[in-house]
Amino acid sequence: MRPTWRESYPITGGGVSAGAVTAFAWLLLFGLLGHDVPSYAWWTLVAGGLAWLAAAVLVRYGDRGVAVGVAIVTAGGWSIAAAVVAIRWAQSGDWPLW
């Protein structure tokens, strides 16, 4: 009989969902600290960096499903912030982050 190898911490839908909801709330709270486009973009960048740092720790020592949810939502949040900056840049002709 061959040995059966099982994942020690399998990625589950519940874990991914928990990570996604947590990251969404995290980015939302940090995004609300911004009072204009530049501050929103910088707060989102900082919040996303901290979230990805937490995801890296979770990949190594915790639940990888939660890390996947955090990483996916953080990438989406950064994409939204980048789109907001690009739209403001296109409208004003001036780079909004400096």
Short structural description:
With 98 residues, the protein is mostly helical.
Write the layout of secondary structure elements.
Blueprint: H1 13-31, H2 37-61, H3 64-92
Name the beta content range. under 5%
SSE class: mainly alpha
Helical proportion, percent range:
over 70%
User: Segments where pLDDT lies below 50 for 5+ residues?
Assistant: none
Q: Note the overall shape.
A: elongated
The radius of gyration computed from the alpha-carbon positions, rounded to a whole number of angstroms, is: 17 Å
Largest sheet: none
* SSE succession: HHH
The structural domain count equals 1
Kindly state the mean pLDDT as a whole number? 94
Topology, number of strands: 0
SS element count, helices? 3
- Give the terminus-to-terminus CA distance: 65 Å
Task: List the keywords.
98 residues; mainly alpha
Structure description:
It is a single chain. This protein has 98 residues and is mostly helical. The chain starts with 12 loop residues before the first helix and ends in a 6-residue tail after the last helix. Helix 1 runs antiparallel to helix 2, helix 1 (13-31) runs parallel beside helix 3 (64-92) and helix 2 (37-61) runs antiparallel to helix 3. The protein has one domain. The protein contains 3 helices and no strands.
